From TrEMBL:
Keyword tags: DNA-binding, Transcription, Transcription regulation
Biological processes per GO annotation: regulation of DNA-templated transcription
Protein's name in the database: Uncharacterized protein
One GO MF term attached to the UniProt entry: DNA binding
UniProt cross-references to CDD domains, sorted A to Z: LuxR_C_like (cd06170), PAS (cd00130)
Ranges annotated as spanning the membrane: none
InterPro entries the record matches: PAS, PAS-like_dom_sf, Sig_transdc_resp-reg_C-effctor, Tscrpt_reg_LuxR_C, WH-like_DNA-bd_sf
Residues annotated as domain PAS: 161-201
Pfam families, alphabetized: GerE, PAS_9
Gene3D superfamilies cross-referenced by the UniProt entry: PAS domain, Winged helix-like DNA-binding domain superfamily/Winged helix DNA-binding domain
HTH luxR-type domain location: 264-328
Length: 328
């Protein structure tokens, strides 16, 4: 009965201070708009209800995290700041017994919220990335046809873009230099066919040249070398447009970094129960030391489990491992 009494006490306290707690939502984008206020009020109601539920189900935090990612584009840092402010407001005014009762629930719920947010944010990110080349090409084509903002759009996009006419490079944007290391002075005026021989692996050259000579809008995958010799896997999307009265070709080069690699399915990995626990807390953002303390095991043991997890997942970084966990 003690737990229920404390739960009721906290619920009454939060109800009396609902508006003060709600002030933390000023961090959300489009704050002040009716739809944002309604969403924030709904999220606050869910959080306070889930935290006081009996039996307590911390995994409900994932649902809240997924909703936050779906509705608002917060960085992980801003999500953490929002969570910190919420904790302060939810604990404000509670007595020692209430704080002791609530704190473990907050810790577990927040960890699940972070996992849910990361999982949903990654899904949205990959979906957006998959549509980015086509959307970018459409925007550039519309800008070119209307002779408005083409130069600004071409230069500022984060994706590497090359503009060529009959194989002769007319322009590149800053992203080409940032990712591949080549400057405009080195590439503009060059023939793409000649550059393919120097910049692409021998096994890819025929494949690339075949697509370059085609006049269809198309997407394909290939590889090339950066200026310092690093091989980069790419998704290439091409489209012919009319720019300044001339028929030219836009090429969007999207690097296929590790985050886009297909990861093994759960049934293929076969993690032990302890490895699953370590991965769970790793994905929630805990350090090796924090995981060791939480699971009451030594730091070397955590490092051993982490390496075994990396081996089974075929990854080399915490970020990749967390990405896999968010998909699970």
């Amino acid at each position: 009965m003690l737990s229920m009494n404390i739960s009721d006490q906290i619920s009454a306290h939060w109800a009396a201070h609902r508006e003060e707690i709600g002030l933390v939502w000023y961090l959300l984008p489009n704050q002040g708009q009716p739809s944002t206020n309604e969403t924030a009020a709904n999220l606050q109601q869910q959080i306070t209800s889930y935290l006081l539920m009996t039996p307590f189900a911390p995994e409900a935090g994932r649902l809240v995290g997924e909703q936050l990612a779906q509705q608002f584009h917060l960085s992980i840092e801003k999500l953490g700041y929002l969570q910190g402010l919420l904790i302060e407001q939810l604990l404000l005014g509670l007595d020692e017994a209430q704080t002791v009762w609530l704190t473990p629930r907050l810790t577990a719920f927040w960890a699940e919220m972070t996992v849910g947010y990361g999982y949903q944010a990654r899904k949205l990110y990959l979906a957006e990335q998959g549509q980015l080349p086509k959307k970018l090409l459409t925007d550039l084509q519309q800008a070119a046809e209307g002779k408005q903002h083409f130069a600004a759009l071409f230069s500022s996009t984060y994706s590497p873009v090359v503009l060529h006419e009959n194989g002769r490079i007319l322009a590149i944007n800053k992203a080409v230099t940032q990712i591949f290391g080549y400057t405009a002075d080195e590439l503009v005026g060059q023939q793409i066919q000649a550059l393919v021989s120097a910049m692409a692996p021998a096994a890819e050259q025929t494949h690339i040249l075949k697509h370059i000579t085609a006049e269809l809008t198309q997407t394909y995958q290939t590889k090339c070398f950066s200026k310092d010799g690093v091989e980069i896997a790419l998704e290439v999307t091409t489209k012919h447009i009319i720019h300044e009265g001339r028929k030219v070709c836009l090429i969007v080069l999207r690097p296929l970094t590790d985050i886009f690699k297909p990861l093994p399915e759960s049934e293929e990995v076969n993690l032990t129960s302890r490895q699953q626990e370590v991965l769970h807390y790793l994905a929630a953002g805990m350090s090796d030391k924090e995981i060791a303390t939480t699971l009451h095991i030594s730091l070397p043991t955590v490092k051993h489990h982490k390496q075994e997890i990396f081996n089974k997942l075929q990854v080399t970084t915490r970020i990749e491992a967390a990405s896999w966990a968010w998909q699970g």
